[in-house]
C-alpha cells in the first residue's frame, strides 16, 4: 500500500476534525482510536471491493465458515500489520505526539466467543485471507459478548460486556443484504396439476436478519475477505406484528447475548433460535449469491463449501435442503447430493456433556418444516443402513432417538467430511466416540490439527521477539512460518541465547508492571513465570496446579531455606456462570493467593497472580512473558488446545500430559525440550473400563499428598470452608473423576526437573529457543491450506 508518513499525518488530522469538529490533540484516546480506525477502513475499501469483484468475475469457489463464535481480538494493529502500514502509522502518530500502543488500547476487545473454538475461528479467518483463499465467516453479532469477569472477595462475579458502547469502526451494516428468517407456523401440502407436491408454510413469525460485515485483511497480499455477523431486527413495514413491548423484546433477544458455556451444552430454546437464525441467514445469502452466477444447481458444490464449526450451525444442513426442495423445487435426491457435497463438519470435543441434543418437540414447535426434513433424513438413513449394518449399529447412529435430536449424528450424515482437531483426538473419535459412524463412513473421517496465527501471537503480541528473530534469521519466517526452523542453527550460540533471555525478561517486566498497577502485587521478573491460561474446567485440572503450589508452600513452611526455584504462578480463567464447581475452584485459588502472597515465611518465593477477565488482549500480554506453559488436562479429554501452541511460539517450555496437540508438540520439539508426565490416554480408558481406580487409597497411602489435601479442610486456608470441603470430597470421597491424585507424583517430579533446568540459564534458554524454532508447523496457515486442499477443494489465488 503506497503511503507515506506526511500524507498519513495530514489524513489523520483531517479525519479527526471531520468526525469530532476539534483538533486531535484535545481528543480522548477513544476518539483518536476511532478517527484512526475510520481512516484505516477507508484505506482498504478499494481492495475490499476489488476482492469481491474478482471472486465474482472468476466465479471462484468460496468457503463459508459457519461459527457461533468469533474471537478476533483488537483489530487495529492486526489490520495495520496485514496492510503493511504499521511502521508508517506508528511513526506518523509519534510525530503527532501520540503513541500507537496507547491509541490501540482504546479499542474494545470484542469477546464474541468463549475460548478455543471462537479464537480458532478468528485465527482461521486471518489465515484464509493471508494464504489467499476465497473464504468468508458467518456468525452472530451479539449485542453483548462473553461476560466481564470481576473478583469480589475472591468469588467470580459476571458483568455484561457492552462491547458496542463506542462506535465499532470496522463493521459495515449491509441493509440491502438483509434476509427474513422464519420461525413457527403451520406446514401443509397440496398437490399440483402435474402431481407434484407443494409445501405451504404459513403463519410464521418472521425475523429480519441484518448483516454487519467486517473486512478480513490478508497479510501483504491485497486480499480482503468478509466476516458476516447477523443481527435480529423487526422487519421493516411489519411493525404491526410486533405491537407489544414483549414481542419486540423477543426479537431483540435472539442476538442479545452469547451463551457463556465452553465445551458444555445448554439446552435452551433461545440457544436453538440463535443457531437456526444465523445458519438460515447464512445459507439464504449463499443461495442468493449462487443464483446470481446463473449456473445449474448441480454445480453448487463446485462453487460453494459450507464448513460448520462444531454442531452449533448444523441446522444449515436441513435449511439448505429446505431451500432446494421447497423454494427451488429440486428432487430429494438432487438436494441431498448437493447438500452432502457442500457441507463439512469439525468436531471439537469428546465430552458427552458438550454433545448437542434437542428435544424433538422443541424443534417441531419452533421449526416445523425443518423438523419434517430432519425426520425424512433420519428415515432414509435408517432404511438405507439397516440391511447393511443391522439393527443395533444402525439404531445407534439414528438422528432421532428417545425424543431427542442428536446434532452430531445429523452433522455427520449430512456432510462429506468429519474432522477432529489433533491426531490423538481424531484417533479417539474413530476408535471410540464416533466409532459406529467410522464403520459406516470411513472415508469421511480425517484429521486437521489446529493452528494459530503467528502474525497476532508473535508479531503483534511480542515485538521484542520479532525484532530479535529478524536480526538473527531474517524475515522469511513472517511469510512462511516453517522457516523459523533455521533458528535451530543458533541453539548453542551464546549471544543469541542471551538475547533471547533479555527479550523474555523485558516481556516479564512489562507484565510485572501491569500486575503491580492493576492488582497491587509485586512480582520479580527474574522468577520463573508458570502460566495456566484457559477456561476453568475440571478436566483441564487447574486443581492439579494448585496441589503443586500447596506442596511448595508446605516445603517452605517446613524449611524457609528449602532449595526451590522462585516462581510466579499465573492463572487466567473464566468459569461458566452456572458451573458451580469451577467457581469454587476460582475462589480456592484466590484464597490461596491471599494466604501465600502475604505470608512473610514464604518470603516471595511463591507468588500467585490470578488475572481478572482473561481474554485475547490479556493473552497477548501474558503469553510473551511465560516461562512454563501448563497443559495438564487428563489425557484424552482436551481435543487439541491452542494456548499450548501460542506459548510455545513465544518460547515457553511446555509442562504437559500426552493430550490433544501436546502429543504433536512433543514430536516436533523433542523429549529434551518439554516436560511430559501422567497417564496416557489409553491408560485412562482402561481405568474407566475396568473401574479399579481408588483415589481414597492413594490419599491414605501418600502422606505428602494427604497433608496437602487436608489443608483444604482443616482451616489452614481462610475463607474456603465450603469450597475446601467440596473439593476435598470430589477428590477423595467421590473418586477423583479426572485422576489428579493418580498423576500427582509424576507432576511433582516433572516440576522438580523444570526447577533444575531453569536454574541452568543456558540450558533453559536453549530449550526456549528450540520451542520457538519448532513452532512453525503449528501455524494456522498450514492448517487452513490442508482444509482447503483436502476438504473444501479450493486453491489460493495467485
Ligand atoms: C471450545 O472452545 C472447544 C470445544 C468445544 O466443544 C466447545 C468450545 Cl466453546 C464443543 C475447544 C476445545 O476444548 C479445545 O481443546 C480446542 O483446542 C478448541 O476447541 C479448538 O478446537
From TrEMBL:
InterPro entries: Glycg_phsphrylas (IPR011833), Glyco_trans_35 (IPR000811). It comes from the Bacteria. Its cofactor is pyridoxal 5'-phosphate. Keywords: Allosteric enzyme, Carbohydrate metabolism, Glycosyltransferase, Pyridoxal phosphate, Transferase. Gene3D superfamilies: Glycogen Phosphorylase B. Its EC number is 2.4.1.1. One of its GO terms (molecular function) is pyridoxal phosphate binding. GO terms for cellular component: cytoplasm. GO terms for biological process: glycogen catabolic process. Pfam families: Phosphorylase. It catalyses: [(1->4)-alpha-D-glucosyl](n) + phosphate = [(1->4)-alpha-D-glucosyl](n-1) + alpha-D-glucose 1-phosphate. It is an enzyme of class 2 (transferase). The modification N6-(pyridoxal phosphate)lysine is found at residue 646. Phosphorylase is an important allosteric enzyme in carbohydrate metabolism. Enzymes from different sources differ in their regulatory mechanisms and in their natural substrates. However, all known phosphorylases share catalytic and structural properties. Allosteric enzyme that catalyzes the rate-limiting step in glycogen catabolism, the phosphorolytic cleavage of glycogen to produce glucose-1-phosphate, and plays a central role in maintaining cellular and organismal glucose homeostasis. Belongs to the glycogen phosphorylase family. This is Alpha-1,4 glucan phosphorylase. It comes from Trichococcus flocculiformis. The lineage of its organism: Bacteria, Bacillati, Bacillota, Bacilli, Lactobacillales.
